[in-house]
């Protein structure tokens, strides 16, 4: 089955190969193409794409909610109650350890945004928790390896693994939605900010975090000040949602690259270049055979 990314690219190349004039116009103004799998069926698992607006609405509805008393396991397999984090601001994000692109990028960027806050305010003033939502694969050992591999070493940052039975309730509590698709997990890249009283006060979205996104509101929480309302529009937030172009295997819970796409793409490119070569030769031969004017 040809993936959505390849279909979009295939259609674009066919369009460009059909008409040089259209290709020149396309070079000036190229439309932004989006392809997402819808309602794909694999075995007994129906795979659909995430509704971004519904996910955003669901995420925002968590604001104002008190922190739930869930029990998870840390990287050493010891139980940790989320209620232990009451009394200090808390940042919560959800990851999956089999991710090779978005989650590592998001996690490293979050650490960069927090390093200055830790050095200025101190690591004992707030806490950070990353929760592995792809159970049972995001085990304590997998989370330990993930944090080591990507150099997440802030002293106040913990990685927690929930039991499979509570994943749905836990993610819903924080307003986090995820869904397996044939192109990977669709989910909001989200960091939830919880104040010292244990109330969810803000959702921060995206892969890259700046001082304005994370550090500034966190400093306000540490000092007990109110966080001003957000100014970003819904459209701006929707553009931060990342769709992974890989293949999700629900049997193993991991992601693999669909190398058949590369072979199909290489074959198609060979065909296109061959047709262009024949066209150029035909044009040259025709010019050569045309009678010259006296």
Walkthrough of the structure:
This protein folds into two domains: 4-35 and 253-285, no CATH class; 45-249, Glutaredoxin, CATH 3.40.30.10. It is of the alpha+beta class. It has helices at 4-18, 20-28, 52-60, 102-121, 140-149, 167-173, 211-222, 234-238, 259-289; strands spanning 40-42, 45-47, 71-73, 79-81, 90-95, 127-132, 157-160, 178-181, 184-187, 190-194, 200-205, 247-249, 254-256. Helix 4 (102-121) packs across helix 7.
What is the mean pLDDT? 74
Task: Give the termini distance in whole angstroms.
Answer: 58 Å
Q: Please identify the top-level CATH class of the largest domain.
A: Alpha Beta
Q: Considering DSSP H and I runs of 4 or more, what fraction of the residues is helical?
A: 40-55%
The computed structural class is alpha+beta
User: Which strands sit side by side, in order, in the main sheet?
Assistant: 7-6-5-10-11
What is the CATH superfamily label of the largest domain? Glutaredoxin
The coarse overall form would be elongated
Please summarize what this structure is.
This protein is α+β, with helices and mostly antiparallel strands. The protein has helices at residues 4-18, 20-28, 52-60, 102-121, 140-149, 167-173, 211-222, 234-238, 259-289; strands at 40-42, 45-47, 71-73, 79-81, 90-95, 127-132, 157-160, 178-181, 184-187, 190-194, 200-205, 247-249, 254-256.
Topology:
Layout: H1 4-18, H2 20-28, E1 40-42, E2 45-47, H3 52-60, E3 71-73, E4 79-81, E5 90-95, H4 102-121, E6 127-132, H5 140-149, E7 157-160, H6 167-173, E8 178-181, E9 184-187, E10 190-194, E11 200-205, H7 211-222, H8 234-238, E12 247-249, E13 254-256, H9 259-289
